[in-house]
Amino acid sequence: MSDAAERPLDLREMFRALAEHGVDYLVIGGVAAQVHGRRRTTKDLDVTPSPEPENFERLAAALVALDAHPVALGPGAPAPTAEQLNLAPVVPPLATRHGELRILNDVPGAATYVVMRARSLTTDLDGIAVHIVGVDDLIRMKEAVGRPSDIEDVAALTAVAQREGQDGSTGNGDAGT
Predict the structure, then answer these.
(1) Confidence (pTM)
(2) Which architecture, in CATH terms, is 3-174?
(3) pLDDT tens digits for 132-145?
């Protein structure tokens, strides 16, 4: 068993470390699906960072604080540098003190970061502002990837989006802050 599998996912602490370093990111993947009403489990946190060079510097510092290292290389490996984070379309999965983290710069089906950020849902978790990709953007990403779990998520998320549309909400925008 890998060391990442031995560490339970502690979202609060991951979000806290990212916030303490001023990292601008959007939560995507399974955690975003949960926030938007999809009942499912997930073993990792998927994020897409703002593509600004300074943000990659802050992200690299947060990864050091999280004791992050590539899962495949084991605990002795260093965290990715800002340059590595900036150049990799998809950063190899990272083990941290608080569970597994996946960083995706190039997400199939995704709009630009600025557009997705403008449509994101912002929620508060113990005083930490967490930005979750909007449900419509999440559906487009999951449709583009098309794995069986993504197809299941799309069906559930589409039902949620339709319900929200009926009550006047879009699932995109600020909430809880």
Answers:
(1) 0.88
(2) 2-Layer Sandwich (3.30)
(3) 999 999 999 999 99
